[in-house]
Amino acid sequence: MRWVRRHIRKLKRNKGAILIGVLVVFVIMHFFAPPRHAFTRPLDLDADIGLATGTKVTFASLMPGDYCMNKLGTANALEFKQADPKRPKDPCGWDVAATMTQAAEVSFRPREVTAQCSVTLAGYIWLQEVDKSAQKLLGSGLKSVHHAGTYSCRRQRGNGSGAWSEHAFANAWDIMGFQLDDGRVISVLKDWDQGLTNESKARARFLRKARGSACRVFRVVLSPDFNEAHKDHFHLDQGPTLSCR
Q1: Cys-Cys link to 92, which of 86, 141, 153, 214 (CB 3.0-4.6 A)?
Q2: Are 235 and 220 in contact (CB under 8 A)?
Q3: Do 135 and 205 belong to one domain?
Q4: Claim to verify: residue 23 and residue 87 sit in the same structural domain
Q5: Does residue 28 sit in the same domain as residue 47?
Q6: Do 132 and 25 have their domain in common?
Q7: What is the C-alpha to C-alpha distance for residues 93 and 165, in angstroms, rounded to an integer?
Q8: Structural domain count of the chain
Q9: Mean pLDDT throughout 214-234?
Q10: Same domain? 149 vs 224
C-alpha cells in the first residue's frame, strides 16, 4: 500500500508533465499519423480501419442524429435513406435510423437493413474489410450478406424481465453468412469449425477475420465462441458495453 500511495503522490506532482506529454502525443498523431489513426481527424468511411476508427464511430453515435446521417452521406458507395421514426411502444423503436440497400457494391438478403445510424456507419466500414479478406483468403470478392435483421422489440436472451436487447432499438445486426462473387456461400453455422480440407480451413479463417475486423468498429461482437445461442450468427451492436467474443 505504501508503494501505491507513493506513486499516486508522484503522479499528482507530475500531472502537469503528464498533461503536456498527452498533448504532444495528440499533436504528433494529428499532423503526422495517417488520418485513420488520429483521433482528432474526421472519420473517413472509405479508408482502411485504423486505431481511431472505432472511437470515431462511437463519437458519431453520441452526437445528434443529423451529425451521423450527414457522415453517412460522405460514403463513396453507400445506398441508403433515412428511415421514418418508429416508436411502437416504450422503450422500443428509434427516432433516427438509416435504411441501407447496398454498401460498396455489397447487397443484402433480405434486401434492406434498417438500423441506428452508427450501426450503419460501422457496417459500411466493416464490409469493405470483409470484402478484402474474402479476396485474400478465398480468392473471390464479397457479393452479398445474409442476415437476420436488426430490430426486434424484446429483452436480452428472450428473457421477459431482463435488460432490453439492443435489437429493441435497431442498434444490433445479426449476420448469418456471406455470398461471394463466385457463388460460394460462407455460413457461420456450417463453416465456423475448421474441417480437414484447405477450403474448409480457408472458410474458417475468413469468418474469424470477419469477426476480428468487426470488433474494431462495433462495440459488441458475439460469435459461436460466445455461446450456443450464437452458433449460427454474428451479433454486432453499438450498445454501451464492450465485448469481442
Answers
A1: 153
A2: yes
A3: yes
A4: no
A5: no
A6: no
A7: 11
A8: 2
A9: 97
A10: yes
* CA 128 to each of CA 46, 56, 162, 213: distance values in angstroms, whole numbers, following the listed order: 8, 17, 35, 10
Round to whole Å and give the CA distance between 243 and 239.
10
In this prediction, residue 65 has a pLDDT band, given cuts at 50, 70 and 90, of: very high
Q: Which amino acid is at 91?
A: P
Q: Are residues 26 and 54 in the same domain?
A: no
Helical (H) or strand (E) element with 98: strand 97-103
Mark whether 24 and 83 lie in a shared domain: no
**Mean pLDDT across the stretch 194-212?**
97
**What digits encode the pLDDT tens for the residues 87-123?**
998 899 999 999 999 999 999 999 999 999 999 999 9
**120/87 same-domain check:** yes
Q: Structural domain of residue 28, as residue ranges?
A: 1-32
Q: What pLDDT score does 162 carry? A: 83
- Which residue in 54, 49, 48 sits closest to 236, CA to CA? 54
Can you give the pLDDT at residue 181?
98
Which residues have a Cβ under 8 Å from the Cβ of 1 and sit 6 or more positions away? none
Does 37 reside within a domain?
A: no
61-64: long-range contacts (C-beta < 8 A, 24 or more apart)? 61/116, 61/117, 61/118, 61/238
